[in-house]
Amino acid sequence: MTALFALATSLLWGLADFGGGLLTRRMPALTVVVVSQTVAVVVLGAIVVATGGWTEAGPRLWYAVAAGAVGPVAMLCFYKALALGPMGVVSPLGSLGVLVPVSIGLLLGDRPGVLQFAGIGVAIVGVLLAGGPELRGAPVQRQAVVYTLIAAFGFGSVMALIAEASTTLTGLFLALFVQRVTNVVVGGGALYASVRRGGRALPEEGGLRAITAALPALAFVGLADVAANGTYSIAAQMGPVTVAAVLANLYPVVTALAARGVLKERLRAVQAAGAGLALVGTVLLATG
């Protein structure tokens, strides 16, 4: 079941990243973050009320607050990177964040078997190759890489924190709600500061009407992202964090394939080989 929930996480994150990257090409990244996470807050708030999740409040929620503070920074950097560079290149580099929870898992005593260790190595190499080794080039490409690496560390930190934020399903709903409320507060503050400095909160074309028209897509991005956090937390609690983290971080392959199917971004031979290695790594992790 750990593998199943972790793979569901990779699918949800991959689709959310693809949608977020597309939206950021048409409107400010901070606006995408704030609006999409606000939708998630409303939905999660209703779930918490319906399930009585508030009774699970406790010290562990500070992990959710920390995850919520780091999350908007990581998402902002990642969406900017996706808007600057090919999604099939940026997304795999973002998966380097897997090193954070994997390292923590090993320090806390996770000891995967030989096949699983092999699967971890194969999957990480595969995900990196799936983006293609295009780290040299124009200044815009270098800027995208810097944004992506910052985002990767942030995403890895969020994964480690949210896995510690609850021990029950209703507690998980509450933790995700607290995380998203913090997302909105931090992201909203950054958006306000950006506007005060002369930045834009609304798209140049269409303004508020453009955001209203894109609301279904923004809702999908926010809800897919929060669902991915939830499935990852379950996966990390059911099995070794090292295995859950690596399988969850296969999402760049999903993003790359979505970019190939929708945007017609061509996969180079090395990218196709990387996707194949990621699949082999998945099999080793699931069966090891």
From TrEMBL:
Record domain EamA: where: 3-130, 144-286
The organism's place on the tree of life at top rank: Bacteria
TM spans (from-to): 6-23, 30-55, 61-82, 89-108, 114-132, 144-163, 169-195, 207-228, 234-257, 269-287
Lipoprotein in keyword set: no
Keywords for the protein's UniProt record, in alphabetical order: Membrane, Transmembrane, Transmembrane helix
Similarity field: Belongs to the EamA transporter family.
The name this protein goes by in its record: DMT family transporter
